[in-house]
Predict the structure of F-box protein At1g55000.
Amino acid sequence: MGCCGEDDDELIAPLLLANPNPNPNPNSSSSLAVLSPLNSNFSALLSADVLRSILERLSPADLARSACVCRLWRAVASERDVQERAFRAPWGVRCVVGCPSSSAFWRHNGIGRFAISHRLRRGDTVPGLALKYSVQAMDIRRLNNMMSDHGIYSRDRLLIPISKPDLLLDATCFIELDTYAKREAAVLYLEGGPDGKGGYLGRAITERGKRRILDSVKRSMQVDEGTAEYYLSISNGDPRAAILQFSEDLSWEQQRTTA
């Protein structure tokens, strides 16, 4: 949001000037306004807030280029929130949890950066998983750094390539370094989070349903809304896990008080 309650679009619009070309071709893409130090109010871009509202709309590649302009641009373009927004925007991902080992992770947001975590069960085979997730068996082996299908027996889980980008819409992904696959990926859990617990607030739950869960947790814990939201967030939206975690924290605090 802009300062004084102004909308970001209202702040950005005056910065975009018409193409300085005196004879623009209306049928050419070059006639479109392009934001650059050459044809914009460059001094206005020295405001970190205005600059942030602009850079967060760029693709990761353009964001990396903007970091080469000056120190201020580099500082804003290197912010976690700005980089994460550019990374998840094309796929509609709601949130990315965790920090990558290198900031270079954010620069490539292709579908190959994402993967589904499948916990292996008795009877699972690579061809069977390929059929289940509508992917190629060869792609599963390549993603998991396996020379053959026998590598499945030494692992607890496999990373599955995402063939349907719609799965990422409004989803929460976790940045993880898989030691077997020897790769870092934004991992999507279809059945619970990394701790194996299910029941988190998924996109299938309506806003009314979320409100009912929040109100129920508030009543159960006898706390304010902010506290209830916090414990739901750290428990991936699982009401039972949220209440259990709150009870454990409360017991620990009482023990310290009486000690």
User: Anything to note?
Assistant: The longest helix spans residues 239-258. Strands lie at 95-97, 114-119, 157-161, 172-178, 183-188. DSSP finds ten helices and five strands in the chain. The first strand starts at residue 95 and ends at 97.
